[in-house]
Amino acid sequence: MTMLGIMAALPQELGDLVAQMHAAGAVETVTLGQREYHVGHAHGVRVVATLARIGKVAAAATASALIHVFKVDAIVFTGVAGGVHANVRVGDIVIGDTLLQHDLDASPLFPRYEVPLLARSHFAADPSFSDALALAAASFIADEGSALAERFAVHAPRVHRGLIVSGDRFVASNEGVLALRDALPDALAVEMEGAALAQVCFEHAVPCAVVRTISDTADAAAPESFAEFLVAIAGAYSSGILVRFLRSVH
Ligand code: SAH
Description:
Helices cover 38% and strands 28% of the residues.
């Protein structure tokens, strides 16, 4: 049976996953590198759930521990992100089919964005896990989208798939998001962990997938929008997507 690593940066982004694991049976909690790894089951799947904390180093270190210490077969990241593309709005869900580090620049020695000595800038998520996440997200929106839109005064939520860009920067200015759009016109969303996870998983040939709910649009309103969305809504989205996803891969 597959052992799935599920990670997020912040507690709200895991939703009720750890509670669901406790409800499903025994959970062993292991502390390593100042992180807690919860080992158990959720919705019929063997799961190791953990919080990476924020940023690329945190995500890479956590992914590495999930692979080497906990021997997971695949890793899914769930969390929030800033919308970059003009069509991506607060309350939408973005599945990262490919991921790139927008703050990586070893030019002129290597092309902009390329990971030195790895000869690539874009890292692909696993297509079948990404498909399963997209179906779970679509079914969550079909079931609960209009209620969510009304409750939280967001537009009717939509699911997008494509490029997610990651960097060690909370993008929260109009110039910042416009610069990202200019430099990377395909980018749908910006966050701080996904591409680091994707690089580590590529290096170890472990499938990974990233699902992000849009908490803000990476502009001057981002700090307030992020804080409000994280507390009020992020957990509902993560729980709703994860339950459908886990039931489908079980
Ligand atoms: N001030 C916040 C820090 C949040 S960092 C705090 O004290 O908790 C933002 C987190 O959400 C990161 O984990 C990142 O992956 C994601 N994120 C959401 N919106 C983002 C944006 N506009 N730019 C970068 N990351 C964003």
